[in-house]
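Hello,

Our lab assistant flagged a job as stuck in the queue for most of the afternoon. It eventually completed. Since we weren't sure the result was trustworthy after the delay, we are filing this so someone can double-check. Below is the sequence as submitted and the structure that was eventually returned. Let us know if re-running is recommended.
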Amino acid sequence: MLAVFDVDGVVADVRHRLRHVARGRKNWNAFFAAAADDPPLEIGVALAREWAAEHDLVWLTGRPEHLRRVTERWLRAQRLPVPRLEMRPPDDRRPAKFFKADRLRALAAETEVAVVVDDDPEVVAELTHRGCRCTWPTGCPTPTRCARPRSARGGRERGRSRSITSGGSATRAGGLNRWRPSIRTK
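-- returned structure --
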């Protein structure tokens, strides 16, 4: 069973490079060039480790393929497993919500997806639209967690900070990008 995690904004703190894409003309090259310098989001790192202990971890990121070595090195420096890293192909310029939704569909065709953790509300909205039961924890800007696609669950379910496939929620723990997981196994 898979646990699918985003990188930026979930385990990597990207706030120091947001200035490159915040206003007007977005400089994605500068944004991604600083990726190696991201500090970890410790709580996200801990959550990824927790899910990796009992699930096959897949990193699904909107980062371009040319950052594979940088991303793998950064993840390993945080002592995170990197068994599978799904990155955006060089010719794919679609919004992250479409890229990730399509990749998640392909992953779900291979094996069951237990959880998806992503911080982008547009990605979550697209996954919800495609049948993934998503929750946006009350008072928590990141991450957003999604459970199995509708086809695997037998129906479309939505809720606020309710349990996901393996149970749990995230609650505000103070500060931007600070959240505390509360995982309960059924």
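-- support follow-up --
The delay was a queue issue, not a problem with the job. The result is valid. Residues 19 and 76 are 26 Å apart (CA to CA). The chain has one domain: 2-182.
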